[in-house]
Design brief:
Length: 156
């Protein structure tokens, strides 16, 4: 069995219309307040090439477990977009409201919990698709798995 783990923003979903960065102590970071203020526009998100070339074929493959692992809090507008426009993955890992854990640690923790489930006992291969190079390295180092870096303006 193969496991494919997909990030959302900047990887398979283009949410750049509600994304911007700010500089904090000389470091460019996501402007979380702007993101939260514009979450109501999630239904204007669209799909990126990896959605069509990687996500949809994985969803259609009976020998692949598809996991979405996102550092975003999934609020109602996000859930509406995902449920109406995107074929449902087998599992979703997302940030709990109020959680400040780094995205890489959040995803590794969520994946560790899943990998204790019986359906993962015969996992032969895992591939992670991510636009944040630091998260990708952290996840791949933790699980000794394959990583696919998808460059984007949202990989902060």
């Amino acid at each position: 069995m193969e496991v494919k783990v997909f990030d959302l923003d900047g990887c398979i979903i283009d949410s750049s219309h509600r994304y911007r960065t700010i500089a904090e102590n000389g470091i460019e970071k996501i402007d979380l307040q702007f993101w939260r203020d514009n979450e109501k526009f999630a239904c204007k998100d669209s799909f990126l090439p990896a959605f069509y070339s990687e996500y949809l074929p994985a969803i259609d493959d009976d020998n692949t477990i598809v996991i979405v692992a996102t550092a975003r809090v999934l609020n109602e507008p996000d859930k509406l977009f995902l449920s109406h426009y995107m074929p449902r993955p087998n599992f979703i890992i997302s940030r709990p409201e109020g959680c400040n854990t780094s995205g890489g640690k959040l995803k590794v923790s969520g994946l560790n919990k899943l990998f204790n489930l019986k359906q993962f006992s015969k996992m032969a291969k895992m591939t992670v698709y991510e636009d944040n190079i630091n998260y990708l390295k952290y996840i791949c180092d933790a699980f000794k798995c394959n990583g696919v870096y998808i460059p984007s303006i949202q990989g902060h």
